[in-house]
Amino acid sequence: MTGHAPDDALFGRPVDVVARSLIGALLTVDGAGGRIVETEAYDAGDPASHSFRGPTSRNAAMFGPVGHAYVYRIYGLHWCLNLVCGDAPGGAVLIRALEPVSGLDVMRARRGMEASSALCSGPARLCQALGVDDRLNHLSMLRTPFTLTAPAAPVPVVRGARIGISRAVDLPRRWGEAGSAWLSRPFATC
């Protein structure tokens, strides 16, 4: 993704398309990170989205340039990282989980744990491991401290309901790498 096309060409597509295309991409922050294995899509027409009621000081990044970070605090405790995208203002993709591949010692120190399996399996864990906080809000995810690289090869993907929301709960806007051991939660099987 880095250097392959302008922000609008990559991230100006519908949020669901972007959420799916990020599975398998490599994301790092100051060298710590891994392969994206789980995402969720949100846009201004989605009752579960922060942008549903329009721009506010909290969600302003969602109405800014595509390809930038939208970082917010959930439950007043944990940070969450989103990639602003979409074919209309107010869209973003929540990065839910990574397979850790680089900077493991740094991530383990930040998380205070040795087990790689839980380092980045969930949006709050991922942000703690990568050192993401509000200082990164509004920054381009195509420039330092971020590195975002397209998947090396096509990745098999599963789709299902999003996690931890109370509105639009049945919309299948969560994507994950099929069979990944790094997901925040398994996908329901039919």
Detailed description of the structure:
The chain has four helices and eight strands, in the order ααβββββααβββ. Residues 1-6 have low confidence and may be disordered. It is globular. Strands 1, 2, 3, 4, 5, 6, 7 and 8 form an eight-stranded antiparallel sheet that branches. The chain has 190 residues and is an alpha+beta fold. Helix 3 crosses helix 4. The chain starts with 6 loop residues before the first helix and ends in a 13-residue tail after the last strand.
Structure described in brief:
With 190 residues, the protein is an alpha+beta fold. The protein is 15% helix and 27% strand.
Can you give keywords for this protein?
globular, 15% helix, alpha+beta, disordered N terminus
Layout of strands and helices, then pairs:
Elements: H1 7-11, H2 15-21, E1 26-29, E2 32-42, E3 69-74, E4 78-84, E5 92-102, H3 104-111, H4 123-130, E6 146-149, E7 157-160, E8 174-177
Antiparallel strand pairs: 1-2, 1-6, 2-5, 2-8, 3-4, 4-5, 7-8
Helix pairs in contact: 3-4
Number of DSSP strand runs: 8
- End-to-end separation: 33 Å
Shape: globular
What share of the residues lie within helices?
10-25%
Low-confidence stretches: 1-6
Largest sheet geometry: 8 strands, antiparallel
Strand content: 25-35%
Gyration radius from CA atoms, angstroms: 15 Å
Following the backbone from N to C, one meets helices and strands in this order, namely HHEEEEEHHEEE
**What is the structural class?**
alpha+beta
